[in-house]
Amino acid sequence: MRTTIPHLSTVRNIGIMAHIDAGKTTTTERVLFYTGVSHRIGEVHDGAAVTDWMKQERDRGITITSAAVSCRWALDGVEHTINLIDTPGHVDFTIEVERCLRVLDGAVAVFDGVAGVEPQSETVWRQADRYGVPRLCFVNKLDRTGADLSRTVEMIAERLGALPLVVQLPVGAEGGFRGVIDLVAMEALLWPADAGLGEAPETVAVPAGLAAEAERARSRLLGAVAEHDEEFMETYLGGDEPTEAETHAAIRRLTLSSAATPVLCGTAFRNKGVQPLLDAIVRYLPSPLDVPPVEGRPADDGAPLAALAFKVMSDRHLGRLTFVRLYSGRLETGATVLNPLRGRKERIGKIYRMRANRREEIGAAGAGDIVAVMGLKQTTTGETLCDPAHPVVLDAMDFPAPVLEIA
Ligand code: GDP
């Protein structure tokens, strides 16, 4: 059993939000696919592992109906845990969306590159504004006729009142969409026309025909970053070309303070653009250490336990599973915790990390993490679990608590 608790700075708790049909499901599936494949490659050093993984996925289907799924993604040699929290896309589930927004630390807003910003995206965006959730934008479906990144970016600014930081430019359009130019690194990431699942992009020089446009877009990006970030402004005005690390750091600061939102693009369906989106999630979205303490509880494994149950599901094999977000402290199998609202103690049964294709039993979870717990009999959605010696109620929510079936 793996009991290693990931370092807090390497955890990303995020939701993917979108207007219905914009591509939330497809993007989520691709995220789970690429993280599963890349992890397997890293672990086994064997090409055959990829084929096995793909077969397994085909046979079982990817579990994206779970309230939260964990995956791993390495950036610059550092492995990160990304917990994807399911955010209902339909506007009827607004209350559920709000509940999820309390549990996640950052979000990816997926837009349809043809339709741009649609009414439901606006609703969810405003909800995320209220909770101060830092966001990235992914303009999807650039392979479709009539898709237009610039128009969608204008809509993000005008309709959502956000400051978009366009960090990529598309290479090719519609059926000829090939990939993106990374405006920070100033290189192009290109996929084959019929990129298969798992296909990594080829990194090449910015195509000559797009060099001038890319330079202009980069100047706009750096200018906007400098205008809103003092530290970056000093480098920029000093006349030195900012390094990639300095630029990423400034974009991260602006994203974390919700002053700006980085915009990426691609086509999830045609497997182009999701791997750079994963890099951006790790680069720009917050870890639990970057968000303010809840009820004065710091994101610290050594502090007393404070956790929120945000969904109860009925699993065909395991029975009642309670999904919890830990804000501080540790949760361990066998421990006794207090549900202060009910004044009842509960015993923690097995703890699982839900992965795309399996459940991983872990003996303990740490602050900032999101896991599924067996054995809780009393606790329902919106209720707190805490250390009996240090009771705290995490802003209880009075919402109906549906028990959903998962496969
Ligand atoms: P959701 O309702 O936001 O979860 O959207 P889905 O992921 O189910 O996608 C809605 C439809 O758009 C499906 O038919 C997808 O196959 C299609 N779709 C998703 N991403 C893309 C894309 O990048 N390009 C194109 N052409 N179609 C896409």
Automatic annotation (TrEMBL):
GO terms for molecular function: GTP binding; GTPase activity; translation elongation factor activity. One of its GO terms (cellular component) is cytoplasm. One of its GO terms (biological process) is ribosome disassembly. Residues 9-289 form the Tr-type G domain. It comes from the Bacteria. It is found in: Cytoplasm. Keywords: Cytoplasm, Elongation factor, GTP-binding, Nucleotide-binding, Protein biosynthesis. Its main location: cytoplasm. GTP binds at residues 18-25, 86-90, 140-143. Catalyzes the GTP-dependent ribosomal translocation step during translation elongation. During this step, the ribosome changes from the pre-translocational (PRE) to the post-translocational (POST) state as the newly formed A-site-bound peptidyl-tRNA and P-site-bound deacylated tRNA move to the P and E sites, respectively. Catalyzes the coordinated movement of the two tRNA molecules, the mRNA and conformational changes in the ribosome. Belongs to the TRAFAC class translation factor GTPase superfamily. Classic translation factor GTPase family. EF-G/EF-2 subfamily. This is Elongation factor G. It comes from Actinomadura namibiensis. The gene is fusA. The chain holds residues 1 to 407 of 688 of the full protein.
